[in-house]
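User: Assemble these into one structure.

Assistant: Restating your components, then the assembled model:
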Amino acid sequence: MALGEVVVSATGIEKYFGENHVLRGVDLEVRERETVMLIGRSGSGKTTMLRCLNFLEEPTVGSVEIDGVRVEADPLHQRSRAHQEQIRQIRLRAGMLFQDFNLFPHMTVLQNCIEAPTRVKGLPKGQAVELAESFLGKVGLLEKRDEYPARLSGGQKQRVAIARALTMQPKVLMFDEPTSALDPELVGEVLQVMETLAHEGSTMIVVTHEMSFAHEAADRVVFMEGGVIVEEGPPEQVLVEPNQEATRQFLRRFLGRGAASVPGGTGETAMPILSTGGRGQGTAA
Amino acid sequence: MAAGATAREQSGPLILERIAEARRRARFLYRGQFAATWLVLVGGLGLFLWASGQINPEFIAKWGPFILDGARTTILVCVVSITFATMLAILGAMGRLSRHPVINGAASLYVSLVRGTPLLVQIYFAYLALAEVGIVLPVLVAGIGALAFNYGAYMTEIFRAGIQAVPSGQREAAEALGMAQGLITRRIVMPQAIRIVIPAIGNDFVAMIKDSSLVSVIAVQELLWRAQSAGRRNIAILEALLIAALIYWLLTIIFSFFQERLERRMARGDR
């Protein structure tokens, strides 16, 4: 699919946690309809990078522009009203999915989905419900619209969270290890939904450990280590024939064998994960 | 394997039935002994008092209803006070969690001051001391005000803990959806905090039923005040206090019962 304009552009992002220099100058550009996957070992800064994009973490230095709204890191005045309002404008354009879903437990599935659209964007309720129902249908959970989150499985919760994010009609979806908290047999259904979204041309940034999924669904894979981007490129390159020794090492350690046999190859570890999803059979392929 | 299954099919239901029957009997026996213990102890105490010859049945018959009527005032005072206390506590908790130095300072002072002084002093203060500076409150208002002010401070800490018990991911998810801070507090955090806190509020309500007896000192005509005035007038303090104590006891039993049921329902909940 042809990529469009630049939607997300982060420049020179640095982040300190106390003395700890977690991000050491990261630039990231994401184009419309592009799916970018951030990989790297834990502590490499990939999750922090994602959270800096919508200012859940205030970067120490740098700037983020999403869909024409540009915010400079301003750690000295991060509580100022003007700065907070700018950040809010960015967040309206970037949907976020979390490792542990963070559905609102006191609201039904449908209420979860329409809360922000009605109260933040001022969408009329009927319209919000219609939107929410169409996205719930898309993730295969329309029949659960009146259930409370406690009655859903982990995989269902994450799919509802996806529908909730979509109902805000964001320009980009950001996933922070969306399947890490799931039982193995529930991973597939979430990846399936994400893959569908990717194929349909959603703009997505995904922090993930699912290498085979990255290989399948990513337009570009970004490998981070030590707070910088070490290597990026199409998955066939980064995951199969990486240029950097650090990438090769990571893949070797991650998969417990040669990097060359990652996805496309024999892939016994990888492929079954993708085929477990029972839902959304008609995934565009 | 097959033989085992057959044996099980035959003896299984029988043995299960017998176990269930034995359990039923044990439970029945336990409850019977429990109730008998109460009956014997309470009855013994009653008999002892009766035998002492100090109990005047005429007083009980004549003044009992008068004292009992005070329970209405007691409940009214408690319901109104706990309502205001809850509102104060929500404000107090938000103040204690505020990053604004003035708001935080004011809320912290409120909690420190109230928790550092006796409720009885606060009640006198609301009625007698405020009058000295020209603020004359009706006794009922002064009593309710003091109770609400006092419980509001203790409940501030309960609410603060309740708000902090809401996982931080909830706030993050709401922020990521572009919700503003006030909206997040109102729609996401508070509803969950209140759920967490409701059992504790129930607890405080039961405690307040007893503490409300203190407002008798400023002549709010609740249970204890009525008991004392009837007892003094008829030189029947023992009977009067017995009646009051019994009514307090019954009230707390009744409300504890409801509170436990509420707690169980919240625990089941839709979370």
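The interface with chain B takes residues 54, 56, 79, 84, 88-89, 91-92, 94-96, 98, 100, 102-106, 115-116, 119-121, 148, 150-151, 164-165, 168 of chain A (CB under 8 Å).
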